[in-house]
Amino acid sequence: DIQMTQSPSSLSASVGDTVTITCRASQTISSFLNWYQHKPGKAPKLLIYTASILQSGVPSRFSGSGSGTDFTLTISSLQPEDFAIYYCQQSYSSPWTFGQGTKVDIK
Amino acid sequence: EVQLVESGGGLIQPGRSLRLSCAASGFTFDDYGMHWVRQAPGKGLEWVSGISWNSGRIDYADSVKGRFTISRDNAKNSLYLQMNSLRVEDMALYYCVKERIVSGYYTLDYWGQGTLVTVSS
Description:
The structure holds 2 protein chains of 2 kinds. Chain A is mainly β. Helix content of chain A is 0%, strand content 50%. In chain B, the strands form 2 sheets. In chain B, strands 2, 4, 5, 6, 9, 10 and 11 form a 7-stranded mixed β-sheet that branches. Chain B has a 4-stranded antiparallel β-sheet with strand order 1-3-8-7, with no helix packed on it. The chains are: A mainly beta, B mainly beta. Chains A and B meet through strand 4, strand 5, strand 9 and strand 10 of A and strand 5, strand 9 and strand 10 of B.
């Protein structure tokens, strides 16, 4: 199975900060990498697919990059509604696997 | 508007069976693969199982293989998860999720609100 490792596991940031979350796959996954945002009590929300394509309706302050084994999610000018848990997920091969999550909270 | 509504969760004893259902609307159900993803209390997201539009491709996580069965009824716009031999570690919020394929790349673009499965004696 492909292991997905996110870093950091958690971070504290202020409104207006730029935040970067990294995700590393245990083997190459091309661009089969998606990012999700999850808030307590709500359904997870797709942010980025195919490593770098912004899902419709997602603010442009979210961006993704990378291919192969190393990927990043960047949130520019963090907004109050962005405090949540972020997950990467590979769809290169079954079983699909998620990273352990990165919790972004308020400093 | 895409809607995915899960049902069938509840309190169940270890070793027993439970069947989850997901009612889909707002899209052409039989055009898309579907998945179940779960989140155990205090844990992250875990992919459980997926099924293609015509049930021709079915996959499972190792943790549920041989115990869970995914199925769909395209005439009823419904997805199911039959869970047998339930274990305490299966306790989680189970999400029904729609798949999307873009240029050969797979993603999970719409999620339901989830149904809670509690496994306890």
